[in-house]
Structures are given as structure tokens and as C-alpha cells.
Amino acid sequence: MGEKVVGDRFDLDARERFRDRIHACMAALGALLREGRFERSRDRIGLEVEMCLADSDGSPRMVNDEVLARMATRDFQTELGQFTLELNMSPRALAGRVFDDLAEELRIAIGYADRMAAECDARLVMTGVLPTITAEQMLPGTLSPNDRYSLLNDQIMAARGEPIQLDISGAERLRGTFASIAPESACTSVQFHLQVTPDRFAAVWNAAQVAAAAQVAVGANAPFVFGRELWHESRPPFFLQATDSRPPEFAAQGVRPRSWFGERWISSVTDLFDENVRYFPALLPLLSDEDPEAVLAAGGVPRLAELTLHNGTVYRWNRPVYAVADGVPHLRVENRVLSTGPTVVDTVANAAFYYGLVRALADQPEPVWTRLPFAAAERNFFDACRHGIDAELTWPGEAPGGAPERLRAARLIAERLIPLAAGGLDACGVAAADRDHYLSIVEERCRRGVTGAAWQTDAYHRAVAGGADRAAALRDLVRRYCELARTDAPVHSWPTGG
Q1: Could you read off the pLDDT of 161-176 as tens digits, one per residue?
Q2: Which of 75, 193, 249, 448 gives 46 a disulfide partner, CB atoms 3.0 to 4.6 angstroms apart?
Q3: Cα dihedral sign for 223, 225, 229, 231?
């Protein structure tokens, strides 16, 4: 790459050259937008699914390299922790029987990976944070042996100048100090990608920000971190603190964290890239061999490698993505709010709800974000993380010009948002059978008040009430969770109490 490193930091010259290249990338992006050279097709989707590896006792198993070595596919790759894997699904059109097809491909891929994991005395667990992971296991040696991960760790720790501090209060309190970003590796999520045209990007991103709270409320699946019961969806506050490159005095002064909801509605994709460049110093100032302005002047399409690299170290819950496929640039919204699982069918139901709701909200003649303050959307998100399906969320009144009102998440989702999502899927051309099947799963979670997080906490407290200590209750929880997840029955139908 040609970068120069001094100790665990890049020298000033490397950072200045990277900053210059970033500005060249931004200029090239602006030119591509003005010239209308972006892919015009839309409503193409893609998924990334992160999963944990656990042993028969439910504890993390550090064998991702061994599992991958047994696989005859490149669809899986390592993630930050040696006990995690990531599956990348091929892009597809959001139409027809897309969700049934997606579910079948996921079952085949995960079943294959699970068989390979079994040869390493491991099994896959689809959850946001494996409940049995302990703080003592979060050592630098648990990171996957990848140069990029090592460099990211060195740069975050150097920027902080002191250990990572975790302090999260929920049903219980978690506090801890860590000498590396290893705690971040405990977070496993599903990412929903949606390709959009430049003129639609702002509306879709704003819609995704609005939808985030409802997604989390009905899809929460990470109630435990390092054996402590915290929020229904503990992953966002946990991830925020585990990736925080700010020294404590900067955080106290209001400097933005790299894990970020944002602070305003946008009018263009460039608003987000501009903010990323303006607010966040480069963690990985690695220069590529490409001169984006020269490529553009020659009639080519630049990869904008420095911009995309920097963008990947700003952990927005809805992230803008620039990419080039077959020589044509395109834009995507990458939705990163949800934990993985509990099952394939639950994951696909979450996808159907998200894609349908975002389409409907983006198409509204009087969009929700013109009637809802951005701060209210952010508060909704964190209220949903804390309380799950029982959260109260702020939403514009149904009457024209009506003031926002507070509604229980289950009621808001069942009565207002699922019908919207159904209409959005219809607008995309999704088959009625897919629409009804997967949205009915979301509706049943609302009716019964059961999410992955609710099931996990209920199972844990039943085990403790039966005389198990904390560690045994969590191990039993993971074992039973794995058994039920393999049936692929949606989590709202899982039995409790045994």
C-alpha cells in the first residue's frame, strides 16, 4: 500500500496524503453524481449474516479458521473474533418469491457451515451476543489473525490513549476495562443492503432511520453481555463503547462516537460522506494506487478506495455505501441495527418488514421525517433497544397535522407499520404469499409479546428459579436455544419452561 507506520500510528505525512486523497474521492463522487453515471435500477437487496461458534457446553469456540478451511465456498469469511463467521448472500431483486428463495438459500448455507463446524466440535449460534461469552475471554488473542483487524485495534487504542471502558446499566450493570477492541468481536449482527438511485437515496436513508426503532423493538435478540442481563437489544450500546476511539475527555466535550445514529435528516448521500470526513479522523490511512480524478478524466469509474475504507470505520446504524459492479457505480443503504437470528425464518421476516416499511415510508407524499424531529427518532431507537417490544415510541398522529404521540411499540407495529410494510412490498412486486407469510411472523411477535430477547430472558430466569447458578443457567439457555433454532420454527412459537 505504500503507507509508513511509526510504532502503532501512521506518520503525519501518511495522514496528510490520505486526507488529500479522500478529498479527491469526494470530488470524483460529486462529478459522478452530476454526470448521472450511477446504476439506475433499484430495489436490489443483499444480506450479510454474522454468527457465533459455540461448543457443546454453549461456550465460544475459537475455531473460525479451521471451519473455513473445511469449506468449499467463498460465501463465508472470518469476522473480528475467532469464534465468529460471516455469510455474504448474493444480491437479488426485491420481487416475486424473493423471501422464500432467500430463506431456502440461508438454510442450505447455514446447514452446510454447521456441518463443517461440527467437525471442529462447534455449532453455529444465531444471536446478537452469545450469552456465555465472558469478559475474561476478551483478550487480544481472541481476534482473528487478520492484518486489517490488528491494525484497526492498534489505531483505536492509540487514538484513545487508554483502555476501553464499558459501563452499561440495564436490568443489571456491566462494568469492565479492556486492553483491546476484543469486546467488539462479541457483537454479531445481520446487515440488510438496499440498492437505490441517487435521487432516492436521501428518502430511503431517512426512512431507514425512522424504521430503526420498530426494527429493534420487534427483533431484539441480545439481552445478555458477559453474563449480565442488560437491555433487550444490548448490542448498540455495547458496540458503541467497544469501538469508541475517543479519549474520555473528548467524549465529555461532545465529540461524536464512531458508532453513531446521526444528528439530522439528509437531502443527499453526500451529506453523509461529508459528515464522515469532517467529523471522524482516519483510522486506517492506507493509500491505494488509484488516482480517482485521473481515472474519471480518462472516462473510467474510480473505486474511491480511500473513501470506502474510511466509511467502513464509521459505524452508522444506517450506513451509506458506494460500490462499483461491472464497471458501473451504485449506491446502497446498509442497515446494521439488528442482531442475527434467532432462526432463518425470523431473520427473513425481519428483512421483509424492513424492506417493505422503508419502501412505504420513502414513497409517502408527506414523509414521516417531515413530522418527526430527528431527536425523537434517535430517542425511539434507544428506547427500543432498552425495552424491546414493550417500549413506547413517538410517532406522528394519524390526523393531518396531528401532533406526535407516544404508542406502545407492539401496537404501533401491528396496527400501523405492518400494513405500511405490506403496501411497500406490494409496490416492489413481492408475491402476496411471501408478503403474508413473513409479515405474519412479525405480527405474531407483537401479539404474543415474544422476541428473541424476551425468550432468552424468560428461559434464563426460569433456570435460575429452578436452582441453577448464573453460569449454568446461561449454558442451559444456549443449549436449548440451539436446539429450538435448528427446527427453524419462529421464536414466538418456541416453548418456555423446558
Answers
A1: 999 999 999 999 999 9
A2: 193
A3: negative
Residue 144 pLDDT more than 80?
A: yes
For residue 128, give the 3-state DSSP assignment. coil
- In angstroms, the CA 210 to CA 357 distance is 10
How many C-beta neighbours within 10 Å does residue 35 have? Answer: 9
Chain-centre distance for alpha carbon 343? 16
Query: How much is the pLDDT for 372?
Result: 95
Closest CA to 187 of 233, 148, 119: 233
- Work out the angle at residue 13's Cα, subtended by the Cα atoms of residues 11 and 19, and round it to the nearest 5 degrees: 105
Please state, as a whole number, how many other Cβ atoms lie within 10 Å of the Cβ of residue 467: 8
β-strand 84-88 against 76-78: which pairing, if any? antiparallel
The Cα 150–Cα 152 span in angstroms is 5
Evaluate whether 485 touches 126 at the Cβ level (below 8 Å).
yes
Mean residue pLDDT across the chain: 94
Q: Are 83 and 64 in contact (CB under 8 A)?
A: yes
Nearest by Cα to 106 from 345, 338, 337, 339: 345
Residue 441 has which C-alpha cell?
411472523
| pLDDT surpasses 90 at 148 | no
How much is the average pLDDT of 316-335? 97
- Contacts of residue 252, defined as CB under 8 A and 6 or more positions apart, other chains included, come to none
Q: Is the pTM of this model over 0.90?
A: yes
Q: What is the pLDDT of residue 15?
A: 85
> Taking Cα atoms as reference points, which of 131, 239, 228 lies closest to residue 183?
239
Q: Strand pairing partners for 96?
A: 430
The whole-number average pLDDT for the span 201-226 is 98
Q: Are 333 and 339 in contact (CB under 8 A)?
A: no
Q: Dihedral sign, CA of 157, 163, 169, 171?
A: positive
Cα–Cα dist 24/487, whole Å:
51
Helix (H) or strand (E) holding 421: helix 418-428
CA angle 488, 493, 498 (to 5 degrees): 95
**pLDDT recorded at residue 10:** 63
The pLDDT value recorded for residue 3 is 38
Residue 330 near residue 197, CB atoms below 8 Å: no
pLDDT band at 454 (very low <50, low <70, confident <90, very high): very high
Q: Which DSSP letter does residue 388 get?
A: G
Q: Residue 174 phi/psi, 5° resolution?
A: -115, 125
Q: What is the DSSP string of 174-214?
A: EEEEESSSGGGGGB-EEEEEEEE-HHHHHHHHHHHHHHHHH
Query: What does the DSSP assignment read for 283-315?
Result: S-----S--HHHHHHTT-----HHHHHHHTTSE
State the average pLDDT over residues 46-57.
95
- What pLDDT score was predicted for residue 498? 52
